[in-house]
């Protein structure tokens, strides 16, 4: 590989010479491919041969087709239990009348005091 100290002018002239050589080689290959194409198209082997007749096929017995049979019936679906019945919540206990509540505090007080 050329050193990096090469002047830009020298690099450009070297690349131009390489491209010129490549161009001449491609032109020569193109000419040779053209000659080859002409030789192949003019040769008698290039002509399509007559198609060969198909070989006769020996007769054979056709296989016996089975009669159509329906598919087996689907198995019965498993019993699905019914969803649980919703039972209503028990009714709340009735509230005591207010008079009972007022007397309840006295009983509690007496219980705390040890009288009851």
Please explain how this structure is put together.
- The protein has 116 residues and is mainly alpha-helical.
- Helix content is 44%, strand content 0%.
- It has two helices and no strands.
- The protein has helices at residues 8-42, 98-113.
Q: Give the fraction of residues assigned to helices.
A: 40-55%
Which structural class do you get from the secondary structure elements?
mainly alpha
The residue-averaged pLDDT reads: 79
Give Rg in angstroms.
55 Å
Report the portion of residues in β strands: under 5%
Termini separation comes to 117 Å
Oligomer: single chain
Shape: elongated
| Sheet of most strands | none
| N-to-C SSE string, H for helix and E for strand | HH
In total, the number of strands is: 0
Q: What is the count of helical runs?
A: 2
Spans of 5+ residues with little confidence (pLDDT < 50)? none
In short:
This protein is mostly helical and 116 residues long.
What attributes characterize this protein structure?
elongated; single chain; 0% strand; 116 residues; 2 helices; mainly alpha
Helices and strands in order:
Blueprint: H1 8-42, H2 98-113
